[in-house]
Amino acid sequence: GSIKLCRCVHCKIHRWYGAWRPASARCASLKWISHICIAGAACAVFNPALVPVAMIGGLAPDWLEILQKKVNRRGGKHRSTTHYLAFWVLLTAFFLFVWDWRSVGYWFALGGVIHWICDSLNASGVPVGWWSDRRVHLAGGRLRFGSGAEYATVIVFVAICAAAIWTRSGTGGFLPFFYQWGKYYEQGVVDGAEWRAKRWDFI
User: What's CA 95's distance to the chain center, in Å?
Assistant: First the structure.
């Protein structure tokens, strides 16, 4: 019978660059849902309004690589030009110190930095810049993506961010998480009917 190929986005990118991977092989790439959760959680602690922007930035190195492949239609290494740490750090610095619009660019670029950090945790590694082919592996590159360890890491990170958000709830500012309806009722902000209807709504 025919051998089934892995259908995940990362493995499709690998096949575009000439690397063959069957469905039985364990994918070595961080799942997109994990990138989304980590970038979104990190942004939620500091700027909840821009969580969607950080999520898009958290996937940017991969979807830019897909676009690059479609435009150039040439072979090359996966995790190369769109995964340069130097590019994302410089872009973050530009939006932080030169120009930005309501921090949109900053959180998009920082999402790319977060993506790089996540990808550096496995054996494939990621490049620092265009001047070297050497790839960086943080924590020894021992995290096998797509495994239980990946999801455990994501859950722990999101839980830490959620705890940080919880400590900020009720301090003012825009924070669409962990509404303290009981406190709002005591302060007269909401009435009894609204409290009963929303007391279990946290988001």
Answer: 19
Give how far Cα 195 sits from Cα of 178, 187, 191, Å: 14, 12, 6
Alpha carbon 185 to its chain's center:
36
**And the tokens for 79?**
């995790």
Please give the model's pTM, rounded to 2 decimal places: 0.77
Instruction: Check residue 127 and give left, alpha or beta (phi > 0: left; psi -120 to 50: alpha).
Output: beta
What are phi and psi for residue 178, nearest 5 degrees?
55, 55
DSSP codes of every residue in 108-127? HHHHHHHHHHHHTTSTT-EE
CA pair distance 74, 69, nearest whole angstrom: 7
Greatest extent of the chain over all pairs of C-alpha atoms, in Å: 69
DSSP letter string, 6-29: P-SHHHHHHHHTT---BTTSPP-S
pLDDT digits (tens, 9 = 90+) for 64-93: 998 988 888 765 677 889 999 999 999 999
End-to-end CA distance of the chain: 49
What length is written for the chain? 203
CB atoms within 10 A of CB 113: 20
Structural contact between residues 125 and 136, judged by C-beta atoms closer than 8 angstroms: yes
